[in-house]
């Protein structure tokens, strides 16, 4: 009986003891330990470093790689080659048809380039935009040729360097003087008699004999472009060959052959000019 009365009392005392013990413990021992976190200073330094990598000074150069440098060099090189090819086209268009054919044959270019050059030669100086587009097109056709060979051919043609031209073309001096290269559209059927022959003969005789009226008539032709400098050179060649004197029969034959060749070149040039003159001129 006594034990039954004392048991609840002991339990009450034990519960009171434990409650008092936990209440007296420090607060930090009663709470759960916090999860580990990154220090604030470390977080700030990391975010600052990350944002710093994303920033760039206004005048600071962009980082470049070897591949980027090679790409820029190739683009600049292509631009230079394109300009050089357009300049070649302009130089070629200033030459006579036989000179153009000779150069195109040496650099192994076909009739497409010749036709493009013939077209731009027919365009007047007032057709600036058309000439610009045509020269750009010609430049594209010329980009694959050997640049050193083309430069030498153009320079030798401008300077009338016969030795250099012989070395580059493989033609003899007689072939160069006669300008007898591949036939072009202006020379097809040139041996046939047509309505232009009388005019060509009159022009040729007048230029060779220094007839002022005929000379002025030829050089003042309108409606078609032609190389006046080349025409003067052809006329001088005929006149010079006629003034030469041979000491013996063999020398006389050489002079006669040179005169015939010079006259053929002059006649061919004048016939091409006559055919291109508008009918209403």
Keywords, separated by commas or semicolons:
single chain; 281 residues; mainly alpha; elongated; DarP
Structure description:
This protein is an all-alpha fold and 281 residues long. Among the domains are: 91 residues, no CATH class; 80 residues, no CATH class. 70% of the residues lie in helices and 0% in strands. About 15% of the residues have low confidence. Pfam families: DarP (PF04751). InterPro entries: DarP, DarP_sf.
Query: What separation lies between the terminal Cα atoms?
Result: 153 Å
Structural class based on helices, strands and sheet pairing:
mainly alpha
Task: Specify Rg, calculated over alpha carbons.
Answer: 47 Å
**What letter string, H or E per element, gives the SSE order?**
HHHHHHHHHHHHHH
Average the pLDDT over all residues and give the rounded result.
74
Précis, in short:
The chain has helices at residues 2-24, 27-30, 40-54, 66-93, 97-106, 111-122, 128-142, 147-159, 162-169, 173-178, 197-208, 212-219, 228-243, 249-276.
Strand-helix topology:
Layout: H1 2-24, H2 27-30, H3 40-54, H4 66-93, H5 97-106, H6 111-122, H7 128-142, H8 147-159, H9 162-169, H10 173-178, H11 197-208, H12 212-219, H13 228-243, H14 249-276
Helix pairs in contact: 4-7, 6-7, 8-9, 11-12, 11-14, 13-14
């Amino acid at each position: 009986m006594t034990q039954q009365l004392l048991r609840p009392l002991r339990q009450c005392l034990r519960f009171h003891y434990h409650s008092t013990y936990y209440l007296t413990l420090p607060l930090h021992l009663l709470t759960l330990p916090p999860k580990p976190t990154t220090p604030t200073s470390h977080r700030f330094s990391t975010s600052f470093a990350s944002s710093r990598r994303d920033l760039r000074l206004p005048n600071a150069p962009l980082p470049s790689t070897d591949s980027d440098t090679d790409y820029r060099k190739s683009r600049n090189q292509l631009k230079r080659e394109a300009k050089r090819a357009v300049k070649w086209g302009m130089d070629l268009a200033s030459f006579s048809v036989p000179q153009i054919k000779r150069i195109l044959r040496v650099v192994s270019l076909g009739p497409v380039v010749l036709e493009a050059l013939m077209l731009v030669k027919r365009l007047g100086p007032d057709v600036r935009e058309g000439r610009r587009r045509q020269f750009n097109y010609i430049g594209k056709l010329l980009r694959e040729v050997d640049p050193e060979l083309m430069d030498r051919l153009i320079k030798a043609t401008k300077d009338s360097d016969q030795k250099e031209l012989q070395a580059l073309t493989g033609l003899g001096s007689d072939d160069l003087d006669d300008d007898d290269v591949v036939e072009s559209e202006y020379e097809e059927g040139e041996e046939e008699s047509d309505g232009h022959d009388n005019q060509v003969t009159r022009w040729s005789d007048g230029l060779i004999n220094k007839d002022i009226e005929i000379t002025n008539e030829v050089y003042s032709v309108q409606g078609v472009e032609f190389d006046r400098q080349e025409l003067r050179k052809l006329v001088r060649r005929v006149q010079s060959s006629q003034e030469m004197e041979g000491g013996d029969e063999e020398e006389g034959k050489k002079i006669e052959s040179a005169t015939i060749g010079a006259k053929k070149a002059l006649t061919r040039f004048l016939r091409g000019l006559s055919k291109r003159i508008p009918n209403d001129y």
